[in-house]
Request: fold
Amino acid sequence: MWGILIAVVSGLLMSVQGVFNTGVTKQTSMWACNMFVQLTAFIVCLAMWAITDRSNLLDLFKIDNKYMLVGGIMGALITFTVIKSMDSLGPAHAVMIIVIAQLLIAYLIELFGMFGVEKVDFDLKKFVGIAIAIGGIVLFKWDDTFGKFFANNTTV
Reply:
């Protein structure tokens, strides 16, 4: 139950952050906003480390798979892509596509056992679930596109 609550809070925070970052970008610039987001995230992480953890920071460079340290680079790219997608698609469409992309990639990572994740067997129910979610995006977008068409071309 705790994991579900944390996941819901994560989704809420990511959606609101995307909207906020898009608003900041419209008044400043993409990279100024992104830099501020990453800087404030760094400050919060540093404070939380000092309060709760205080492990040796140099241990980061002792990990087995050094490629896993590119998470910060990905974080900057995530902020960039969320802002751009929300700006061009709107928050609802952007978040739906982002979440489905996350779900699909996460399942593929599990399916192929990539990056040290335990490999799982193919599950038709999960595949159908992803297909239904993609169908939901199409239906959500279809309503906007075809709803306008039918509203303008209705004859009785």
Q: What stands out?
A: Residues 10-152 form one domain.
